[in-house]
Design a protein that fits this description.
The chain has about 280 residues and is an alpha+beta fold. Strands 1, 2, 3, 6, 7, 8, 9, 10, 11, 12 and 13 form an 11-stranded antiparallel sheet that branches. The chain is about 20% helix and about 35% strand. It has one domain. The longest helix is centred in the first third of the chain and has 21 residues, at about 5-25. It has helices at about 5-25, 25-30, 85-90, 155-160, 215-220, 255-260; strands spanning about 35, 40-45, 60-65, 70-75, 95-100, 115, 120, 130-135, 145-150, 160-170, 190-195, 200-210, 225-235, 240-245, 250-255, 275-280.
C-alpha cells in the first residue's frame, strides 16, 4: 500500500464520517427544535409525504412532564361551557392546549372513555378506540404520562393506576405501525394528535395542511420525533393547538378554516368542550 493511497483513503474516510455526522438522525433532531423553556420545545416541519407542503405544515410542541404538568379540562366539569382554545388557556393558566378528543352531539361528552379524578365525562369504553392517554399516576413509581395501546398492553390494569384517562383512536401503535389504513376517497382534513416520545415527553401535534389520516400517520412516522406511539384527537375545523408562553400567543388550526374566516393571525374561535393543557410546575 503506497503512502499516497493511504492519505487518500484517510481523507475519504474523514469525508464519510463528516457526512454521517450531518446526516445522522440525532443531529437532525437537535436542529429542528426551538427551545422555549426547560422542558418545552417547539418544532415546525414540512410533511414528508405531501408534495409542496410548507415548512411549518406540521407543528409539534414537545413537553417534558417533569417540568410541565398535563391537565384535562372539560366543559362537563367546568360549568358546562365550551371555550375557544385561547379562553381555556387564559382562564386556567395553561401554557398550551390541544383537543382532548372528538365529542358527541351534546357538545360535552367525549366519544371515548374520559375520566378526571372523580369526574367522569364518559364512563363507556369505546370498542373502536385503541389508545388511552393516562396521567396523574396514583403511585410515584409509574411513568408521569403514557399512551396505552389497547392491543399490546394490559390496559384495564394500567388505566386503573391513573387518575386521568382519555380514550381515542390509535394513530401510531405501540409497535410503531400506522394503524390507519389507506382508503379510497378518504376524507381530507387537518389533524390533531397527541404522542409520547422515547424520552417520555408529550407531543402536541397539529397538521394544518389538509390531508388523509393515513398520510398524517405516515408523516409522523418519518419525522424526527422519536415517537413511541400516538393517538388521534380531532380533525377538521375543530382541530387546533394553542401556545401562550413568554408573551408569545400563537394558534395553529385548519388551514382551510382560517382562509375561510379571513384570519391572518392564525386564531381559531371554534368552541372546544374538552382540551388537554399543560401548566408549568412550581
Amino acid at each position: 500500500m503506497t503512502a499516497a493511497y493511504t492519505v487518500t483513503h484517510k481523507c475519504l474516510a474523514c469525508m464519510f464520517l463528516v457526512a454521517c455526522m450531518f446526516l445522522s438522525p440525532a443531529w437532525a433532531e437537535e436542529e429542528v427544535w426551538t427551545k422555549l423553556d426547560e422542558g418545552l420545545h417547539l418544532g415546525k416541519f414540512s410533511s414528508p409525504v405531501i408534495a409542496g407542503a410548507g415548512e411549518d405544515s406540521i407543528v409539534v410542541l414537545k413537553i417534558d412532564p417533569r417540568y410541565y404538568g398535563p391537565r384535562l379540562l372539560s366543559a362537563s366539569e367546568h360549568g358546562k361551557k365550551s371555550r375557544a382554545m385561547d379562553q381555556w388557556c387564559r382562564e386556567f393558566g395553561l401554557v398550551a392546549a390541544i383537543n382532548a378528543s372528538m365529542y358527541a352531539a351534546d357538545h360535552l361528552t367525549s366519544t371515548g372513555y374520559m375520566r378526571n379524578g372523580n369526574h367522569v365525562n364518559n364512563g363507556f369504553v369505546n370498542p373502536r378506540f385503541g389508545a388511552f392517554l393516562v396521567f396523574n399516576p396514583k403511585k410515584p413509581s409509574l411513568p408521569l404520562v403514557q399512551i396505552i395501546d389497547r392491543h399490546h398492553q394490559d390496559w384495564e390494569t394500567i388505566i386503573g393506576e391513573y387518575d386521568t384517562v382519555v380514550q381515542n383512536y390509535r394513530l401510531i401503535t405501540f409497535t410503531g405501525q400506522n394503524s390507519w389504513h389507506k382508503k379510497e376517497n378518504e376524507r381530507i382534513s387537518s389533524h390533531a394528535a397527541v404522542g409520547i416520545d422515547r424520552t417520555g415527553s408529550v407531543l402536541f401535534i397539529l397538521s394544518s395542511l389538509p390531508c388523509g389520516t393515513h398520510e398524517f400517520g405516515e408523516a409522523l412516522r418519518r419525522l424526527p420525533l422519536n415517537l413511541v406511539n400516538a393517538m388521534y384527537v380531532e380533525g377538521g375545523s375543530e382541530a387546533s393547538l394553542y401556545l401562550n408562553h413568554g408573551g408569545r400567543q400563537q394558534s395553529w388550526a385548519d388551514a382551510w378554516q382560517l382562509v375561510f374566516a379571513g384570519s391572518e393571525s392564525g386564531r381559531n374561535d371554534r368552541l372546544i368542550p374538552n382540551v388537554i393543557g399543560v401548566k408549568k410546575k412550581d
